[in-house]
Amino acid sequence: MSSLDSRLERGRKFLEEGEHFRILTHYDVDGVCSAGIVASKLLDMGKRFHISFLRNADRDFILREAEKGEPIILTDLGSSLVNELKGDVLILDHHKPPGDSDEVIHINPHLFGYDGSIEATATTMAYILASDRKYARCFLAGILGDKQYLPRDGPVGLNRKLVELLDVRMEFDLPLFGEVGDAVFYSIEPFYPGLSGNREGVHRMLERIGINPTRNVDTLDPDEKTRLGSYLALNLVRNSKIPDAGKHIVDLDFQVEGSVRYLTELIDSACRTDNQSVAMAYILGEEESFDRMEVLRREYRSQVIEELYRMLENLIEREHVQFYYARSSYLASTVATIATMHLLDPKKVTLAMHMGEVTSVSARAHRSIMDHVDLGDVMRRVAEELGGHGGGHRMAAGATIPRGREEEFVEKVNAEIERSLSR
Description:
The chain contains 15 helices and 13 strands.
Protein backbone atom coordinates (compact mmCIF):
# COMPACT_ATOMS: atom_id res chain seq x y z
CA MET A 1 0.00 0.00 0.00
CA SER A 2 2.98 2.35 0.42
CA SER A 3 3.34 2.37 -3.36
CA LEU A 4 -0.33 3.33 -3.69
CA ASP A 5 0.09 6.06 -1.08
CA SER A 6 3.12 7.50 -2.85
CA ARG A 7 1.27 7.56 -6.18
CA LEU A 8 -1.71 9.25 -4.58
CA GLU A 9 0.61 11.92 -3.21
CA ARG A 10 2.13 12.38 -6.66
CA GLY A 11 -1.38 12.65 -8.09
CA ARG A 12 -2.43 15.29 -5.57
CA LYS A 13 0.73 17.29 -6.25
CA PHE A 14 -0.01 16.98 -9.98
CA LEU A 15 -3.42 18.61 -9.40
CA GLU A 16 -1.96 21.34 -7.19
CA GLU A 17 0.76 22.35 -9.63
CA GLY A 18 -1.34 22.52 -12.81
CA GLU A 19 -3.66 25.33 -13.82
CA HIS A 20 -5.58 23.96 -16.81
CA PHE A 21 -6.20 20.23 -17.35
CA ARG A 22 -7.38 18.07 -20.24
CA ILE A 23 -9.66 15.29 -18.95
CA LEU A 24 -10.45 12.29 -21.17
CA THR A 25 -12.86 9.73 -19.79
CA HIS A 26 -15.05 6.80 -20.75
CA TYR A 27 -18.66 7.59 -21.64
CA ASP A 28 -20.37 5.34 -19.04
CA VAL A 29 -21.34 5.79 -15.37
CA ASP A 30 -17.89 4.92 -14.02
CA GLY A 31 -16.25 7.22 -16.54
CA VAL A 32 -18.56 10.16 -15.83
CA CYS A 33 -18.45 9.69 -12.04
CA SER A 34 -14.65 9.33 -11.90
CA ALA A 35 -14.18 12.38 -14.11
CA GLY A 36 -16.88 14.16 -12.12
CA ILE A 37 -14.99 13.67 -8.86
CA VAL A 38 -11.76 14.92 -10.42
CA ALA A 39 -13.51 17.90 -12.04
CA SER A 40 -15.27 18.79 -8.77
CA LYS A 41 -11.96 18.64 -6.95
CA LEU A 42 -10.35 20.91 -9.55
CA LEU A 43 -13.20 23.41 -9.24
CA ASP A 44 -12.72 23.46 -5.47
CA MET A 45 -9.05 24.20 -6.09
CA GLY A 46 -9.84 27.03 -8.51
CA LYS A 47 -8.48 25.13 -11.52
CA ARG A 48 -9.78 24.97 -15.09
CA PHE A 49 -10.42 21.91 -17.22
CA HIS A 50 -11.80 20.63 -20.52
CA ILE A 51 -13.55 17.22 -20.55
CA SER A 52 -14.14 14.86 -23.49
CA PHE A 53 -16.09 11.59 -23.30
CA LEU A 54 -14.83 8.62 -25.35
CA ARG A 55 -16.60 5.38 -26.27
CA ASN A 56 -13.31 3.50 -26.20
CA ALA A 57 -9.64 4.06 -25.52
CA ASP A 58 -8.93 5.68 -28.89
CA ARG A 59 -5.17 5.25 -28.98
CA ASP A 60 -4.36 7.78 -31.69
CA PHE A 61 -6.62 10.49 -30.24
CA ILE A 62 -5.31 10.03 -26.69
CA LEU A 63 -1.67 10.09 -27.80
CA ARG A 64 -2.29 13.22 -29.88
CA GLU A 65 -3.88 14.97 -26.90
CA ALA A 66 -1.02 13.93 -24.62
CA GLU A 67 1.56 15.28 -27.07
CA LYS A 68 0.09 18.80 -26.80
CA GLY A 69 1.93 19.24 -23.50
CA GLU A 70 -1.09 20.22 -21.41
CA PRO A 71 -1.52 18.24 -18.16
CA ILE A 72 -3.85 15.36 -19.04
CA ILE A 73 -6.01 13.18 -16.80
CA LEU A 74 -7.37 9.85 -18.07
CA THR A 75 -10.21 8.31 -16.08
CA ASP A 76 -11.72 4.85 -16.64
CA LEU A 77 -9.31 4.41 -19.56
CA GLY A 78 -5.63 4.89 -20.27
CA SER A 79 -3.99 1.90 -18.59
CA SER A 80 -3.86 0.06 -21.91
CA LEU A 81 -1.55 2.84 -23.18
CA VAL A 82 0.58 3.20 -20.05
CA ASN A 83 3.74 2.07 -21.84
CA GLU A 84 3.25 4.65 -24.62
CA LEU A 85 2.40 7.74 -22.58
CA LYS A 86 4.92 10.18 -21.12
CA GLY A 87 5.00 13.55 -19.42
CA ASP A 88 2.26 15.28 -17.42
CA VAL A 89 -0.20 12.40 -17.41
CA LEU A 90 -2.37 11.05 -14.58
CA ILE A 91 -4.18 7.75 -15.17
CA LEU A 92 -7.06 6.67 -12.90
CA ASP A 93 -8.20 3.36 -14.34
CA HIS A 94 -9.26 -0.12 -13.22
CA HIS A 95 -8.87 -2.15 -16.42
CA LYS A 96 -6.08 -4.72 -16.29
CA PRO A 97 -2.93 -2.97 -17.56
CA PRO A 98 -0.29 -4.55 -19.82
CA GLY A 99 2.40 -3.19 -17.50
CA ASP A 100 3.41 -0.12 -15.53
CA SER A 101 5.53 2.98 -16.04
CA ASP A 102 7.28 5.64 -13.98
CA GLU A 103 6.93 8.04 -16.93
CA VAL A 104 3.37 8.87 -15.82
CA ILE A 105 1.31 8.74 -12.62
CA HIS A 106 -0.47 5.42 -12.96
CA ILE A 107 -3.08 4.59 -10.29
CA ASN A 108 -4.76 1.25 -10.97
CA PRO A 109 -6.03 -1.31 -8.40
CA HIS A 110 -4.44 -4.23 -10.24
CA LEU A 111 -1.02 -2.83 -9.32
CA PHE A 112 -1.82 -3.02 -5.61
CA GLY A 113 -3.39 -6.46 -5.22
CA TYR A 114 -7.02 -5.64 -6.08
CA ASP A 115 -9.06 -7.04 -8.95
CA GLY A 116 -10.29 -4.05 -10.95
CA SER A 117 -13.17 -6.05 -12.43
CA ILE A 118 -14.95 -6.47 -9.07
CA GLU A 119 -13.01 -4.83 -6.21
CA ALA A 120 -12.38 -1.26 -7.39
CA THR A 121 -13.64 1.03 -10.15
CA ALA A 122 -12.03 4.08 -11.75
CA THR A 123 -14.38 6.10 -9.53
CA THR A 124 -12.84 4.30 -6.54
CA MET A 125 -9.42 5.53 -7.62
CA ALA A 126 -10.69 9.08 -8.13
CA TYR A 127 -12.42 9.00 -4.74
CA ILE A 128 -9.31 7.99 -2.80
CA LEU A 129 -7.29 10.56 -4.74
CA ALA A 130 -9.75 13.36 -3.87
CA SER A 131 -9.96 12.06 -0.28
CA ASP A 132 -13.19 13.89 0.58
CA ARG A 133 -16.40 12.35 1.90
CA LYS A 134 -18.52 14.84 -0.06
CA TYR A 135 -17.83 12.78 -3.20
CA ALA A 136 -19.31 9.64 -1.61
CA ARG A 137 -22.47 9.60 -3.77
CA CYS A 138 -20.38 9.62 -6.95
CA PHE A 139 -18.12 6.88 -5.58
CA LEU A 140 -21.10 4.68 -4.71
CA ALA A 141 -22.76 5.36 -8.07
CA GLY A 142 -19.54 4.17 -9.72
CA ILE A 143 -19.80 0.86 -7.84
CA LEU A 144 -23.45 0.37 -8.85
CA GLY A 145 -22.90 1.55 -12.42
CA ASP A 146 -20.05 -0.91 -12.96
CA LYS A 147 -21.93 -3.66 -11.08
CA GLN A 148 -19.04 -4.23 -8.70
CA TYR A 149 -20.88 -6.06 -5.96
CA LEU A 150 -22.15 -9.52 -5.13
CA PRO A 151 -25.85 -10.43 -4.86
CA ARG A 152 -27.00 -10.43 -1.22
CA ASP A 153 -23.51 -9.45 -0.05
CA GLY A 154 -22.62 -6.09 -1.58
CA PRO A 155 -19.23 -4.60 -2.47
CA VAL A 156 -15.98 -6.51 -1.97
CA GLY A 157 -12.28 -5.70 -1.84
CA LEU A 158 -11.23 -2.05 -1.73
CA ASN A 159 -14.79 -0.93 -2.44
CA ARG A 160 -15.98 -2.76 0.66
CA LYS A 161 -13.32 -1.19 2.86
CA LEU A 162 -14.25 2.30 1.71
CA VAL A 163 -18.00 1.68 2.08
CA GLU A 164 -17.45 0.48 5.64
CA LEU A 165 -15.45 3.62 6.42
CA LEU A 166 -18.34 5.72 5.11
CA ASP A 167 -20.78 3.86 7.38
CA VAL A 168 -23.62 4.41 4.89
CA ARG A 169 -26.94 2.62 4.87
CA MET A 170 -26.78 -0.35 2.50
CA GLU A 171 -29.98 -2.17 1.55
CA PHE A 172 -31.36 -4.73 -0.87
CA ASP A 173 -34.78 -3.73 -2.17
CA LEU A 174 -36.96 -3.65 -5.28
CA PRO A 175 -35.16 -1.33 -7.73
CA LEU A 176 -38.36 0.56 -8.52
CA PHE A 177 -38.82 4.33 -8.26
CA GLY A 178 -41.76 6.71 -8.68
CA GLU A 179 -45.31 5.57 -9.43
CA VAL A 180 -45.69 1.79 -9.30
CA GLY A 181 -47.18 1.49 -12.78
CA ASP A 182 -44.43 3.52 -14.41
CA ALA A 183 -41.73 1.81 -12.34
CA VAL A 184 -42.65 -1.67 -13.60
CA PHE A 185 -43.38 -0.44 -17.14
CA TYR A 186 -39.87 1.07 -17.45
CA SER A 187 -38.07 -1.71 -15.56
CA ILE A 188 -35.06 -3.15 -17.42
CA GLU A 189 -32.92 -4.52 -14.56
CA PRO A 190 -34.69 -6.83 -14.12
CA PHE A 191 -36.54 -6.94 -17.42
CA TYR A 192 -39.98 -8.52 -16.98
CA PRO A 193 -41.23 -10.07 -20.26
CA GLY A 194 -44.88 -9.17 -20.81
CA LEU A 195 -44.74 -6.39 -18.19
CA SER A 196 -41.77 -4.17 -19.11
CA GLY A 197 -42.96 -1.91 -21.91
CA ASN A 198 -46.52 -3.32 -21.74
CA ARG A 199 -48.85 -0.81 -20.08
CA GLU A 200 -51.90 -3.11 -20.27
CA GLY A 201 -49.97 -6.01 -18.80
CA VAL A 202 -48.75 -3.88 -15.90
CA HIS A 203 -52.22 -2.56 -15.11
CA ARG A 204 -53.75 -6.06 -15.22
CA MET A 205 -51.06 -7.30 -12.85
CA LEU A 206 -51.52 -4.43 -10.39
CA GLU A 207 -55.31 -4.77 -10.49
CA ARG A 208 -54.96 -8.47 -9.71
CA ILE A 209 -52.87 -7.77 -6.58
CA GLY A 210 -54.86 -4.71 -5.52
CA ILE A 211 -52.31 -1.90 -5.98
CA ASN A 212 -53.17 1.42 -7.63
CA PRO A 213 -50.67 2.06 -10.46
CA THR A 214 -50.43 5.75 -9.50
CA ARG A 215 -49.23 4.94 -5.98
CA ASN A 216 -45.61 5.86 -5.27
CA VAL A 217 -43.41 2.85 -4.57
CA ASP A 218 -42.22 4.50 -1.35
CA THR A 219 -45.80 4.50 0.02
CA LEU A 220 -46.33 0.74 -0.27
CA ASP A 221 -46.68 -1.05 3.04
CA PRO A 222 -44.74 -4.30 3.68
CA ASP A 223 -47.69 -6.50 2.66
CA GLU A 224 -48.21 -4.62 -0.62
CA LYS A 225 -44.51 -4.70 -1.41
CA THR A 226 -44.44 -8.45 -0.72
CA ARG A 227 -47.38 -9.06 -3.08
CA LEU A 228 -45.74 -6.99 -5.79
CA GLY A 229 -42.38 -8.69 -5.29
CA SER A 230 -43.92 -12.15 -5.37
CA TYR A 231 -45.66 -11.49 -8.68
CA LEU A 232 -42.50 -10.04 -10.24
CA ALA A 233 -40.45 -12.99 -9.00
CA LEU A 234 -42.96 -15.40 -10.56
CA ASN A 235 -42.61 -13.54 -13.86
CA LEU A 236 -38.84 -14.10 -13.84
CA VAL A 237 -39.15 -17.76 -12.83
CA ARG A 238 -41.48 -18.35 -15.77
CA ASN A 239 -39.50 -16.39 -18.36
CA SER A 240 -35.84 -16.79 -17.42
CA LYS A 241 -33.28 -19.57 -17.86
CA ILE A 242 -31.37 -18.38 -14.78
CA PRO A 243 -31.95 -20.95 -11.98
CA ASP A 244 -32.29 -18.35 -9.21
CA ALA A 245 -33.93 -15.67 -11.37
CA GLY A 246 -36.71 -15.06 -8.84
CA LYS A 247 -34.18 -13.65 -6.39
CA HIS A 248 -33.18 -10.93 -8.85
CA ILE A 249 -36.18 -8.75 -8.09
CA VAL A 250 -34.11 -7.04 -5.39
CA ASP A 251 -30.84 -5.20 -5.89
CA LEU A 252 -28.27 -3.25 -3.92
CA ASP A 253 -28.86 0.39 -3.03
CA PHE A 254 -27.23 2.95 -0.78
CA GLN A 255 -29.03 5.77 0.96
CA VAL A 256 -26.94 8.95 0.81
CA GLU A 257 -29.07 12.06 0.29
CA GLY A 258 -31.64 9.76 -1.30
CA SER A 259 -31.28 6.60 -3.37
CA VAL A 260 -27.88 6.19 -5.02
CA ARG A 261 -29.33 3.53 -7.34
CA TYR A 262 -31.86 5.99 -8.74
CA LEU A 263 -29.05 8.53 -9.23
CA THR A 264 -27.05 5.81 -11.02
CA GLU A 265 -29.98 5.07 -13.34
CA LEU A 266 -30.25 8.77 -14.20
CA ILE A 267 -26.55 9.10 -14.95
CA ASP A 268 -26.52 5.87 -16.94
CA SER A 269 -29.42 7.02 -19.12
CA ALA A 270 -27.70 10.32 -19.85
CA CYS A 271 -24.50 8.46 -20.73
CA ARG A 272 -26.16 5.90 -22.96
CA THR A 273 -27.94 8.60 -24.97
CA ASP A 274 -24.73 10.62 -25.48
CA ASN A 275 -25.83 13.27 -22.99
CA GLN A 276 -22.86 12.83 -20.67
CA SER A 277 -22.61 16.61 -20.33
CA VAL A 278 -26.06 16.66 -18.69
CA ALA A 279 -24.94 14.13 -16.07
CA MET A 280 -21.64 15.98 -15.58
CA ALA A 281 -23.48 19.28 -15.10
CA TYR A 282 -25.57 17.68 -12.34
CA ILE A 283 -22.50 16.22 -10.64
CA LEU A 284 -20.89 19.66 -10.73
CA GLY A 285 -23.90 21.24 -9.03
CA GLU A 286 -26.45 22.18 -11.68
CA GLU A 287 -29.68 20.94 -10.07
CA GLU A 288 -31.76 21.79 -13.17
CA SER A 289 -30.11 18.87 -14.97
CA PHE A 290 -31.96 16.40 -12.74
CA ASP A 291 -35.30 16.76 -14.56
CA ARG A 292 -33.60 16.44 -17.93
CA MET A 293 -31.96 13.19 -16.82
CA GLU A 294 -35.36 11.79 -15.79
CA VAL A 295 -36.71 12.48 -19.29
CA LEU A 296 -33.64 10.77 -20.77
CA ARG A 297 -34.13 7.83 -18.39
CA ARG A 298 -37.61 7.12 -19.75
CA GLU A 299 -36.56 7.58 -23.37
CA TYR A 300 -33.54 5.32 -22.99
CA ARG A 301 -35.38 2.58 -21.12
CA SER A 302 -38.10 2.51 -23.76
CA GLN A 303 -35.43 1.91 -26.40
CA VAL A 304 -33.76 -0.82 -24.32
CA ILE A 305 -37.07 -2.60 -23.72
CA GLU A 306 -37.85 -2.60 -27.45
CA GLU A 307 -34.39 -3.98 -28.20
CA LEU A 308 -34.69 -6.70 -25.53
CA TYR A 309 -37.89 -8.02 -27.08
CA ARG A 310 -36.16 -7.91 -30.47
CA MET A 311 -33.16 -9.82 -29.03
CA LEU A 312 -35.43 -12.56 -27.64
CA GLU A 313 -37.04 -12.99 -31.07
CA ASN A 314 -33.73 -13.07 -32.99
CA LEU A 315 -31.34 -14.92 -30.67
CA ILE A 316 -28.99 -17.43 -32.32
CA GLU A 317 -27.44 -20.16 -30.19
CA ARG A 318 -24.28 -22.24 -30.41
CA GLU A 319 -23.04 -24.78 -27.89
CA HIS A 320 -21.28 -22.21 -25.68
CA VAL A 321 -22.36 -18.90 -27.21
CA GLN A 322 -25.68 -17.07 -27.68
CA PHE A 323 -25.73 -13.98 -29.88
CA TYR A 324 -27.78 -11.52 -31.88
CA TYR A 325 -27.25 -8.51 -34.14
CA ALA A 326 -28.06 -5.23 -32.40
CA ARG A 327 -29.51 -2.21 -34.19
CA SER A 328 -27.10 0.18 -32.45
CA SER A 329 -23.76 -0.14 -30.69
CA TYR A 330 -24.83 1.84 -27.63
CA LEU A 331 -27.76 -0.53 -26.98
CA ALA A 332 -25.66 -3.66 -27.54
CA SER A 333 -23.74 -3.56 -24.26
CA THR A 334 -26.84 -2.86 -22.18
CA VAL A 335 -28.89 -5.62 -23.79
CA ALA A 336 -26.02 -8.11 -23.48
CA THR A 337 -25.67 -7.31 -19.77
CA ILE A 338 -29.38 -7.55 -18.95
CA ALA A 339 -29.86 -10.71 -21.00
CA THR A 340 -26.90 -12.40 -19.30
CA MET A 341 -27.88 -11.40 -15.78
CA HIS A 342 -31.63 -12.00 -15.95
CA LEU A 343 -32.81 -13.99 -18.97
CA LEU A 344 -30.54 -16.25 -21.00
CA ASP A 345 -28.65 -19.51 -20.45
CA PRO A 346 -26.04 -18.71 -17.76
CA LYS A 347 -23.69 -21.42 -19.05
CA LYS A 348 -23.25 -19.60 -22.37
CA VAL A 349 -21.44 -16.39 -23.22
CA THR A 350 -23.71 -13.66 -24.64
CA LEU A 351 -22.57 -11.61 -27.64
CA ALA A 352 -24.36 -8.54 -28.99
CA MET A 353 -22.90 -7.45 -32.33
CA HIS A 354 -23.48 -4.25 -34.25
CA MET A 355 -22.40 -4.01 -37.88
CA GLY A 356 -21.16 -0.59 -38.99
CA GLU A 357 -18.04 0.20 -41.00
CA VAL A 358 -16.54 -2.35 -38.63
CA THR A 359 -18.41 -4.70 -36.31
CA SER A 360 -18.42 -3.93 -32.61
CA VAL A 361 -19.06 -6.74 -30.13
CA SER A 362 -20.24 -6.57 -26.52
CA ALA A 363 -19.59 -9.81 -24.63
CA ARG A 364 -20.93 -10.84 -21.24
CA ALA A 365 -20.53 -13.93 -19.05
CA HIS A 366 -22.64 -14.97 -16.08
CA ARG A 367 -21.01 -15.17 -12.66
CA SER A 368 -21.55 -18.95 -12.66
CA ILE A 369 -18.74 -19.42 -15.24
CA MET A 370 -16.44 -16.54 -14.27
CA ASP A 371 -13.96 -18.90 -12.55
CA HIS A 372 -13.41 -20.72 -15.84
CA VAL A 373 -13.73 -18.00 -18.48
CA ASP A 374 -11.83 -14.71 -18.83
CA LEU A 375 -13.79 -12.85 -21.49
CA GLY A 376 -11.24 -10.05 -21.69
CA ASP A 377 -8.53 -12.50 -22.78
CA VAL A 378 -10.89 -14.35 -25.13
CA MET A 379 -12.02 -11.14 -26.86
CA ARG A 380 -8.46 -9.92 -27.23
CA ARG A 381 -7.09 -13.17 -28.68
CA VAL A 382 -9.91 -13.87 -31.12
CA ALA A 383 -10.25 -10.27 -32.31
CA GLU A 384 -6.50 -10.00 -32.97
CA GLU A 385 -6.60 -13.25 -34.97
CA LEU A 386 -9.15 -11.61 -37.26
CA GLY A 387 -7.33 -8.30 -37.59
CA GLY A 388 -9.29 -6.43 -34.92
CA HIS A 389 -8.77 -5.65 -31.26
CA GLY A 390 -10.52 -6.40 -28.00
CA GLY A 391 -10.23 -6.79 -24.24
CA GLY A 392 -11.96 -6.00 -20.96
CA HIS A 393 -12.82 -7.80 -17.74
CA ARG A 394 -13.51 -11.45 -16.93
CA MET A 395 -17.30 -11.08 -17.20
CA ALA A 396 -17.64 -7.98 -19.39
CA ALA A 397 -15.55 -7.36 -22.47
CA GLY A 398 -15.73 -6.12 -26.02
CA ALA A 399 -14.11 -6.30 -29.42
CA THR A 400 -13.99 -4.61 -32.80
CA ILE A 401 -13.55 -6.86 -35.85
CA PRO A 402 -13.59 -6.35 -39.63
CA ARG A 403 -17.09 -6.39 -41.05
CA GLY A 404 -17.98 -9.66 -42.75
CA ARG A 405 -16.11 -11.89 -40.28
CA GLU A 406 -18.88 -12.14 -37.67
CA GLU A 407 -19.66 -15.85 -38.15
CA GLU A 408 -15.98 -16.72 -38.02
CA PHE A 409 -15.65 -14.66 -34.85
CA VAL A 410 -18.56 -16.47 -33.19
CA GLU A 411 -17.15 -19.90 -34.04
CA LYS A 412 -13.71 -19.01 -32.70
CA VAL A 413 -15.19 -17.59 -29.48
CA ASN A 414 -17.32 -20.73 -29.11
CA ALA A 415 -14.18 -22.89 -29.42
CA GLU A 416 -12.27 -20.71 -26.92
CA ILE A 417 -15.09 -20.96 -24.37
CA GLU A 418 -15.22 -24.74 -24.81
CA ARG A 419 -11.49 -24.96 -24.11
CA SER A 420 -11.81 -22.72 -21.05
CA LEU A 421 -14.69 -24.73 -19.59
CA SER A 422 -12.90 -28.05 -20.15
CA ARG A 423 -9.80 -27.07 -18.15
